[in-house]
Design brief:
The protein is mostly beta strands. It has one domain (about 15-330): YVTN repeat-like/Quinoprotein amine dehydrogenase (Methylamine Dehydrogenase, Chain H). The protein contains no helices and 30 strands.
């Protein structure tokens, strides 16, 4: 089973960008950049946008030049990677999570890896996030195992890099995604059984904050610069809240919803799509097509997206080449000539 960030029937894509850019109609600007391995998750160093990571079966790939060249490091036991995360506070700390319950940690920027534990009570880990202020504080989203009853789901927290864990809520409930407030790890958002949940006290209590007209929730991200702004993707579209989930507005309607993601570079602009890729330069008020449909590439499953100030990346299966990272270079804003 490969990792998807949305339902099995819809393959959706979302990310955020800093630079102004648009797709020329009919012109393909998506380029396959590797690495030479089947990849299902990727990450970008939050302090150096040229440093990329890709996680595949028992392998982590790293590029120091934006994907021009790659170094592969074996990680025996890492199966079906669902997430790879680079710590914001110390970018040499990297975590790789597998759907089968394997967690690995590197404190050497991916050159060596150590197996860490996952919670004993947890069953199927779906998502992992690292606190922005502490590279040892990680939060895990898990789904249940069901046989004569269901157990093992919920949200779990470790404050020592996966050495030990404690449950912090939504016990024995399927949790697909988590998002952390960048200023405090006490505020956590979780997508749980198609609902958007929030805790403001580190998991002591949770409340539902789903958009009233959103339908089933698929994903959530927090604005990295203004954390009171959060985005939720649902089966009916993308919603934005400017007050930490108290009220919502739809910024893009969609018959299938979409998945979204925020960068660590301060952008409040947004990519989102349910059937292709589109770019908004004004926080979701207008959108531009980035041309996946007209690219000439035979896309299969879209597994993940990521972004730097000048390049968008996505992990996608292509016909005959599963688990590829593709890059789309964003055009810098046109500058008006002097005197014009």
């Amino acid at each position: 089973m490969r990792f998807t960030q949305t339902s099995a029937t819809v393959l959706a894509l979302g990310l955020a960008v800093l630079w102004n850019g648009s797709a020329a109609a009919g012109v393909n600007r998506w380029t396959v950049i590797g690495p030479p391995a089947d990849i299902s998750a990727m990450a970008i160093d939050p302090h150096n946008p040229k440093i990329l990571y890709g996680a595949g079966a028992e392998t982590v790939a790293r590029s120091d030049d934006g994907g021009a060249t790659w170094t592969l490091t074996p990680v025996p036991g890492l199966l079906e990677p669902s997430a790879i995360r680079v710590a914001v506070s110390i970018s040499s700390t990297v975590y790789a999570l597998g759907l089968t319950g394997d967690l690995y940690r590197s404190t050497t920027a991916g050159t060596s890896w150590v197996h860490r534990s996952i919670p004993t009570a947890a069953q199927f880990p779906n998502d992992l996030q690292v606190a922005a202020t502490n590279d040892s504080t990680i939060v895990l989203a898990c789904s249940n195992f069901c046989f004569l009853g269901c157990s093992g789901g919920g949200v779990f927290r470790s404050d020592n890099g996966g050495g030990s864990w404690r449950g912090i809520g939504l016990k024995d409930v399927n949790v697909q995604h988590v998002a952390l407030d960048p200023t405090t790890s006490q505020i956590i958002y979780a997508v749980s059984q198609s609902r958007l949940m929030k805790t403001s006290n580190g998991g002591g209590s949770w409340k539902e904050i789903s958009p009233s007209s959103g339908g089933a929730i698929q994903d959530v991200v927090v604005d990295p610069v203004v954390p009171s702004t959060i985005y939720a993707a649902s089966e009916s579209g993308i919603f934005r809240s400017a007050d930490s989930g108290q009220s919502w507005e739809m910024i893009r309607a969609s018959a299938y919803g979409a998945v979204i993601a925020a960068p660590a570079y301060g952008s409040r602009q947004l990519f989102a799509s349910a059937t292709g890729t589109v770019l908004s330069l004004d926080e979701g008020h207008t959108w531009q097509d980035l041309g996946t449909a007209s690219s000439g590439l035979s896309f299969g499953s879209l597994w993940q997206v990521a972004v730097t100030p000048s390049v968008c990346y996505m992990v996608s299966d292509l016909r005959g080449a599963p688990g590829q990272i593709l890059a789309y270079e964003l055009q810098a804003p046109r500058r008006r000539a002097a005197g014009k």
